[in-house]
Design brief:
Layout: H1 2-6, E1 10-15, H2 17-25, H3 27-34, E2 38-41, H4 44-54, H5 64-78, E3 82-86, H6 89-102, E4 108-112, H7 123-134, E5 138-142, H8 147-155, E6 162-165, H9 169-173, H10 182-186, H11 190-197, H12 199-222
Parallel strand pairs: 1-2, 1-6, 3-4, 3-5, 5-6
Helix pairs in contact: 2-3, 2-12, 11-12
């Protein structure tokens, strides 16, 4: 919110295990993630790892859909217009009235669905100009991981406002996905809930990446493997998913 008031770029994402592992598997993407201004632990296993390895003392995760509502609440209270970028037209048509019902004072400056393709020559600048012309002060990006993080990284230099990569928050708040029970969220079983809802789309994410994450966490804790994070990326991107 401070970045929005000061009209400065600010990149935020909430990463669960899948988001972290996209960086592990792709060093260039890892460098992009390391350039973000704020990365929050979306999943309980990420929180546990931060506490285990770095004694962060975190008592809870920062769940993307909850973070989204907190930011939207503050935006509504302070009169900061928001811009919704990503997902489908059908999802946005349900999301907008849902947010307006929850936050009657909310100003939605613009709504733009994903094109589900790579950007074309000059298109990022055109998107940035549309967002700025709308009067928005905060952009919520719902393109799915890792496309939304790449979009946020690429667009940050073009916009004088915060961009938040919010994952599945659009689908949750549009009523298209149901939140798991609280006990599943507390015990890091949300992945099992999501897998049951979308098995064909998500099975590789959870069946393959979760064990790989735990193996690396154990190896790091035991001292048999040391993470070597790359320096934050600075180079612009010519092509990325929009």
């Amino acid at each position: 919110m401070q970045a929005a008031r000061e009209r400065r770029g600010y990149a935020v994402t909430a990463l669960a295990v899948h988001g972290v592992m996209t960086g592990v598997q792709d060093k260039a993407h890892n460098a992009r993630l390391n350039s973000f201004d704020l990365v929050t632990p979306d999943g309980q296993p990420v929180r546990w790892a931060l506490n285990l390895l770095h004694k962060a003392g975190l008592t809870d995760r920062v769940y993307g859909p909850t973070l989204t509502l907190k930011v939207v609440d503050q935006a509504a209270a302070s009169g900061m217009p928001i811009y919704l970028y990503g997902s489908t037209e059908a999802t946005l048509e349900r999301l907008v009235p849902a947010l307006e019902e929850m936050f009657p004072a909310l100003k939605i400056a613009g709504v733009e669905a994903s094109k589900f393709r790579s950007s074309q020559d000059g298109e990022p600048v055109e998107i940035a100009e549309r967002i700025k012309a709308s009067g928005a002060r905060i952009v919520l990006v719902g393109l799915g991981c890792p496309r939304q993080e790449i979009f946020t990284y690429a667009m940050r230099p073009l916009l004088d406002m915060p961009l938040l990569a919010v994952g599945a928050a659009f689908d949750y708040h549009a009523g298209l996905l149901k939140n798991p029970p609280a006990w599943m969220q507390r015990n890091a079983l949300e992945w099992l809930w999501r897998l049951g809802l979308e098995p064909k789309r998500l099975w590789r994410r959870y069946v393959l990446l979760n064990p790989a994450y735990l193996a690396r966490l154990a190896a790091q804790k035991l001292g048999v493997w040391k993470a070597t994070p790359p320096a934050p990326a600075t180079e612009p991107l010519d092509r990325f998913a929009v």
